[in-house]
User: Fold this.
Amino acid sequence: MLFDPKKIKVKDYMYNLPEERIAQFHLEDRDSSKLLLFKNGDISEKVFREIDEYIPNDSLMIFNDTKVIRARLHFKKNTGAVIEIFCLEPHGDKKEIHNAFQRKGSCKWTCLVGNAAKWKSGSLEKDFKYNNKVFKLVAEKEREDSDETAINFNWDSGELTFTEILRATGEVPLPPYVKRDAVEMDKTRYQTVYAVNDGSVAAPTAGLHFTNDVLSKLKRKNVKFGYVTLHVGLGTFRPIKAESLKDHVMHSESIFVSRELVEMLLNNSREKVIAVGTTVLRTIESLYWFGLKILSQPKKDFDEIKIKQWDPYCFDKDNLKWTYKDSLSAVLDTMKKKGRDYLYGDTELMIVPGYNFRIADALITNFHMPGSSLLLLVAAFIGNEWRDVYEFALKNNFRFLSYGDSSLLFKN
Assistant:
């Protein structure tokens, strides 16, 4: 281990965030948010719609195309008690997540249950309307395991998919620090304009500022667009409660990477790679470590990406001799041998100060909670000047967290 990330103290990455600085609503126009630009140690305030002016020509910009599902379902019992079921992910094989949304008639999900004490047994039912017809959705508990519950859903239509069920009955899962109920506008505004693949219970918020107009201006600079899919889980909001990182368990998230994206990264190795959000950064860095595993264990058959929390910090110097081009070439060769157009996997990668980034040159991201894993990632990317960045944002009335303003950070 080149350095010991487990010794990092969370208290060293705290700052004072007044509650009134946490954005409770989106701005009227996505791209009218403020943009903090950090480059070569200089910090300045810009407007997001002008971000193309600060992105180098011929860059490769990578987006997370995950789509937020309407994960909150409310059922009312005969007693009047309201039970909330928060759908986290399909139960069982997570690689089947895309197929899970197309299930008809029934499906099983891992969920959180709110007001669970009022639902000790029996099924829950609710009527809902779809295309002017009334249907019934039934929820039955199969198994409870600590905080999570396996729930079977059944509905009386063999034609409706679970995606359609959620769209008809579910509510937008706003973050816990947004202290209000979801409204109609959240259905579109808590979603990126390029979202495609259902699966997240939280938005990849760095992408919320992009409009089709901004994307068009970037294309005119010959900026290429690549996409990964990382389905954002509730773990992204989970605070680090431990005093040091050795006692913190990083959440796992499902990732999907295409052969096309790997080829784009290889072909753009001498140009700027811009990660749109911490989820993208985690995904492409995980891809690098996956390639290193392939190179360092040539006799092992790697079928899926599996990156544990501390994996990158355990490679010895001999294994770090390979460049990111070597690593991604190994990934591409593996995909070709297996006839795969996509790689599936899970990453628990925790990026902390001292981490050596291999792929991204710049990061677009919002402003994060004190002492969070996301703030530690930012501190790893730009060094101790993260404090200057956050102090500037606070002094200049930037809005914080999911519906807040944005930053463009070039690697220090």
Q: What stands out?
A: The domain at 5-67+192-410 is CATH 3.40.1780.10 (QueA-like). The chain has a mean pLDDT of 92. The first strand starts at residue 34 and ends at 39.
